[in-house]
Design a protein that fits this description.
The complex is a heterodimer of chains A (367) and B (369). Chain A has 367 residues and is of the alpha+beta class. Chain A has 15 helices and eight strands. Chain A has a single domain, classed as Cytochrome-c3 Hydrogenase, chain B (Orthogonal Bundle), CATH 1.10.645. The chains are: A alpha+beta (367), B mainly alpha (369).
């Protein structure tokens, strides 16, 4: 006699230790096996896009801090780039270099969190996270030096940055850049050859190349699937064309590749920093821009390679002090759409780590 | 004759029979319970501090010297919490489960030898008793998962049963190796026969037993039933207050109990030069526990199918081979010198572990639905 069975529907989140915020998944399970995943988002919706339409161009900068709060600098960066493109503002050399330094340190800080919490999702009991926090803490100290904040920096301005760096900043940054490769080696030693990590991650949660492209995935998720697409190379913005760095690319698109790509990107960011610091010129840190900026009529899409993928801002100007339309292309929302394809047929534990390997940030998804 | 029996005989001379029978039992139980509860508190403190060291932080250090009173504060906090029973849960099962988890754990200590004659009950089948009693907790965990009417708890409960049943086999088989060499099932006899610790005599047996017990006590990397990143807290997700404290105590009690058993079976129990037996026992227990904490701090968790594969394809065949090797050695080698056996067994252990690490991989791969 066959036993009658029925699918088991489990609500994961919005309050769950590994949903990286307030994400909710309605998971249909067959025993331990995932049959269907339905993401439910919107628990952190603050209407940032609508709020932006009622604010001046400068007032929007603090709003962008609240998107991907683990990488606020790059959010600022993407937004001011879009506005500068719209208004045709020239940025001083020194500001360009400061922006690159901030963006690349932010990438390291964001990837540290991503890899650390990915390991936490694997069940590694906080140890990798705390090791990575040790370094992230140093970066947060650096940010505190330049802008007084540790999470929502509000550092970039249209036409430059808000403050010049204090004199103790560069020595601290140089020390960090010198130490960081050693720390990455330490993580590799702890993690890269770990039998359990390999068994859990290799071949799990595969995102094939064509699916990755079709879902418009970007960032480490796309590169892990073997697509060499990095906006810093593909559509160089700011002064990225002056630096020499590689784009690490995975082969299979499994969880291990996503982990590996992030580790390699940290090394590449250190490389960029090593080149940027000696070249940092003296001079103005912000261009003369009117406080109430009135860009000409028109629309613009500015995008950068944020730590989590392609972060884009779409702005429509009606020649007033506020944008007529303010739209954000959050990388992780779009990367998240591939989740179902990646986890169907795998176990619950694989669902958790695959979700962790996408490295979502709910501030950005719900906006 | 154990100390308690001696006490009873002495009392029998002055007191009526029934009192002379009851009082030593009560004294013994109180001493053992006191030992267990104190050591559990020390364990909780020790684990937190040690984890802190592993994770480049300090760990609790505010309350008392080196934070030694932190577990007491935790206990007070837990006990003051409201006791919540899920409205649609099975109330009786929900209420009974913590007891069924906790009591067997304490019962294991009845046969742990703390010194030459310091043992609560010197059963002639002590080790069989341990195996039997320790399996009872599974029922409690399953009841907790079922009675909570919670889906996470249910997943945890189902995982528990599979895990415990699988790891029982390699554990028992590796114990058989010890029993063959010791020639007795009694815990005191097993300790007495360890002129050389069985850790040296049966390294492979120790390895299998250790990994098996780590799985039995649901510690990392086998802590699937409370996998906090997957199923939140597993079977005790719906528990609070005193009932949760029972689970908490049961968990650390389990760790303590198995540390005692490992010490007794493989590390020559209370034996050791110079120091008094109880101190030797404590030192060895702490060493075993430190190893467990180290694993917890370092390793990620296995997946549920990998866990099963590890038990059935990894530990079980090794345990069977180990048993045959030990049996053959007891038959042919025991007359010569134990050190020959040590050498042979280390070679075998090395070869087998190497072979298994090559032949058997946990494997990622797609799971058959």
């Amino acid at each position: 006699m066959a036993i009658r069975t029925e699918p088991f529907i489990l609500n994961m989140g919005p309050q769950h230790p590994s949903t990286h915020g307030v994400f909710r998944m309605r998971v249909t399970l067959d025993g331990e096996v995932v049959v269907d995943v339905e993401p439910v988002i919107g628990y952190l919706h603050r209407g940032i896009e609508k709020l932006g339409e009622a604010r001046t161009y400068t007032q929007i900068i603090p709003l962008t801090d609240r998107l991907d709060y683990l990488a606020s600098m790059t959010n600022n960066f993407a937004y001011v780039l879009a506005v500068e493109k719209l208004a045709g503002v020239e940025v001083p050399e020194r500001a360009e270099y400061l922006r690159i330094i901030m963006a690349e340190t932010m990438r390291i800080a964001s990837h540290l969190m991503a890899v650390g919490f990915f390991l936490n999702d694997l069940g590694a009991m906080m140890t990798p996270v705390l090791y990575m926090w040790r370094e992230r803490e140093k970066l947060l100290d650096l940010y505190e030096m330049v802008c007084g904040q540790r999470l929502t920096y509000n550092y970039m301005r249209i036409g430059g940055v808000s403050h010049d760096i204090p004199e103790e900043f560069l020595p601290a940054l140089k020390r960090f850049v010198a130490e960081m490769p050693g720390f990455i080696d330490e993580y590799d030693q702890l993690l890269a050859q770990n039998e359990i990590l390999l068994a859990r991650c290799k071949g799990v949660g595969i995102l094939p190349k064509h699916t990755a492209i079709n879902t418009a995935a970007s960032g480490p998720v796309l590169r892990a699937s073997g697509v060499k697409w990095d906006i810093r190379k593909a559509d160089p913005y700011s002064i990225y064309d002056r630096f020499d760095f590689d784009v690490p690319v995975g082969s299979v698109g499994d969880n291990y590749d996503r982990y590996w790509v992030r580790m390699q990107e940290m090394r590449q960011s250190v490389r960029i920093l090593e080149q940027a610091i000696p070249q940092l010129p003296e001079g103005e840190f912000c261009a003369e821009v009117p406080k109430l900026l009135r860009p000409p009529f028109g629309e613009v899409y500015g995008h950068i390679e944020a730590p989590k993928g392609e972060l884009g801002f779409y702005l429509v100007s009606d020649n007033s002090i506020a944008p007529y339309r303010f739209h954000i292309r959050p990388p992780t929302l779009i990367n998240l759409t591939a989740l179902k394809d990646m986890v169907t047929g795998w176990k619950v534990a694989d669902l958790i780590i695959t979700f962790g390997s996408i490295d979502v940030c709910l501030g950005e998804i719900d906006r | 004759m154990t100390l308690l029996e001696q006490f009873r005989l002495w009392l029998g001379g002055i007191w009526p029979d029934w009192a002379a029978y009851v009082l030593p039992a009560v004294v013994g139980i109180v001493i053992v319970l006191g030992f267990v509860l104190t050591l559990v508190i020390v364990f909780i403190w020790y684990e937190r501090r040690l984890l802190g060291r592993f994770q480049i932080r300090l760990g609790p250090n505010r309350l008392g010297p080196e934070g030694i009173f932190q577990p007491l504060a935790t206990a007070v906090k837990i006990l003051l919490k409201e006791d919540i029973v899920p409205a649609k849960g099975d109330k009786v099962v929900h209420w009974l489960a913590p007891l069924i988890v906790f009591v067997p754990v304490v019962m294991i200590f009845a046969v742990v030898p703390f010194g030459e004659r310091a043992i609560l009950a010197d059963l002639n089948v002590g080790i069989v008793y341990v195996v039997a009693i320790s399996s009872v907790s599974v029922v409690g965990i399953y009841m907790a998962g079922w009675g909570s009417n919670n889906k996470y708890a249910l997943i945890a409960a189902l995982r528990t049963v599979a895990q415990m049943v699988s790891y029982e086999l390699p554990i028992v088989l590796s114990i058989l190796g010890v029993v063959l060499v010791a020639g007795s099932l009694s815990m005191t006899q097993i300790v007495a026969s360890q002129k050389i610790p069985f850790l040296l005599l049966q390294p492979l047996g120790f390895l299998i037993f250790f990994l098996g017990t780590v799985a039995e006590m649901n510690r990392c990397p086998f802590d699937l039933l409370e996998a906090d990143s997957e199923i939140v807290a597993g079977y005790h997700i719906e528990y609070s207050g005193m009932k949760f404290a029972m689970f908490y105590l049961g968990e650390y009690g389990h760790a303590l109990a198995y540390a005692c058993i490992i010490t007794t079976l493989f590390l020559s129990g209370w034996q050791g030069p110079l120091l008094p037996p109880i101190l030797w026992l404590l030192v060895k227990i702490m060493a075993v526990f430190s190893l467990i904490v180290w694993m917890r701090a370092t390793l990620p968790r296995l997946r549920v199918d990998q866990l099963m594969a590890f038990a059935w394809k990894g530990l079980l065949p090794m345990a069977i081979i180990n048993l045959f090797i030990v049996a053959a050695e007891v038959l042919w080698l025991s007359e010569i010198t134990p050190w020959l056996m040590v050498a042979v067994n280390f070679v075998f252990a090395g070869v087998l572990v190497l072979l298994w690490s090559k032949l058997f991989t946990l494997g990622g791969g797609r799971v058959e639905v």
